Structures are given as structure tokens and as C-alpha cells.
Amino acid sequence: MNIALCHSMQYAERAEEVKRWYAAHGHQAFPSSTNDQYLGLSDNEKETLKLDEKYHHDAIRVHYAVIEKSDAILVLNYEKYGIPGYVGGNSFLEMGFAYILRKPIFLLNPIPHIPYYETEIIAMRPTVIDGDLSRLLA
């Protein structure tokens, strides 16, 4: 199975761990193509790099192509800004791409309670795997 990983770049290290876990189980998981550039950076450095990648290197369209070729997406929605299961704007956009492409959408953690777009996340009918990576393979 080919899995597109969607996540905040603040979690580049965690995305690498998930990628390695799936590889050890005979599957391919694809974080952002520039994920390696974020490893070891501070949150502020990651934020600066993120805008540059999106603006100058078309990172949104590049990851869209990964989603197109994948069998499913997995949103790595860890706690951020004090919100359990946070889904940021870019991950939400990628969920929308997957939804339109009729790709299965998986959330690592429960749907966050975020005003204005919690309903839209629910409407895309993601499967919540409650932190159990093997559930995506079932």
C-alpha cells in the first residue's frame, strides 16, 4: 500500500518515524518530498522554511501529486496549539484533495474540535485509527 502522509511540518521527525514503521511492514508512506529539510530545525525555523517551500517550490501541488498516486492518506494529527488532534490548514486542504479523488482518509487521532471546520472534517468521513498504525492496513 502507498500512503500519503499529511501533517504539520513541525512534526517532520514524527512523519519519518511513521514512514519507517510502514516500510518495516512492507508498505510505503510518503511525507512531504521536502520533509528531510525540516529534520532537526526549531519550530520557528520550520515555519520560515514552510512558507518558502509553498511559495517558491510549489509544495502544495507537489504533495497533491503524491496524494493522486497513493492508495490512501493518513493525517498525522497530533496535539498542537493546545488542541488535541489538531488539523492545520494545509492538512485540511490535503484531506479535501483526497476526498475529491475518492481516496480513503485516515486520521491518526480523533477529529479535533476546531470551530468552523470540524463539521467539514466529519463530512469527509475519515477513519480514526486512534494511534494504531496497523489499523490502516486492515
Automatic annotation (TrEMBL):
Name of the protein in its database record: Maf-like protein
